[in-house]
Write a structure and sequence with these properties.
The protein is α+β, with helices and mostly antiparallel strands. The chain is 23% helix and 34% strand. The chain contains one helix and five strands. Strands 1-2-3-5-4 form a five-stranded mixed barrel. The protein is elongated, with a radius of gyration of 24 Å. The relative contact order is 0.20.
């Protein structure tokens, strides 16, 4: 009987160690290798929005930080010359080509209050949809 208890204890210990090793491996893989993604050219399609705040507790200001909400539900801050959108209203849909800078690459901490995944610098014509 004592041998069975020892064998069960050893098997449980090995399973626990195996679980911890596998868990650490999966966690490390999900975190990536720590390299930042460089800005890249791309086309985004979505709705012109005022970016929502991450923290909605307490009073909210009425400022509107321009952004785009893609069909996937991701928010990007917009960086463009306001004169490029003379008759373009919040809520309008558009498509544009530009430089996409992942938020992890951005050094600008002023975007931290918004749930954005990047900054979209419009470099081409804006096509209303």
């Amino acid at each position: 009987m004592r041998k069975i208890i020892i064998i069960v204890a050893v098997v449980l210990a090995l399973l626990t160690i195996g679980f911890l090793v596998l868990n650490r491996y999966i966690y490390t893989e999900k975190q990536g290798d720590g390299t930042k993604i460089a800005p890249y050219e791309g086309i985004l399609t979505g709705e012109h929005v005022c970016l929502p705040h991450k923290n909605t507790n307490g009073p909210q200001t009425l400022e509107c930080a321009y952004g785009i909400k893609t069909e996937a539900g991701e928010y990007y801050a917009l960086d463009f010359d306001p004169e490029e959108l003379p008759d373009f209203n919040i809520g309008g849909r558009f498509k544009a080509k530009g430089l996409i800078t992942p938020i992890e690459t951005s050094d600008n901490g002023s975007w931290s209050k918004y749930p954005i995944v990047g900054i979209f610098t419009i470099k081409g014509p804006i096509e209303p949809l």
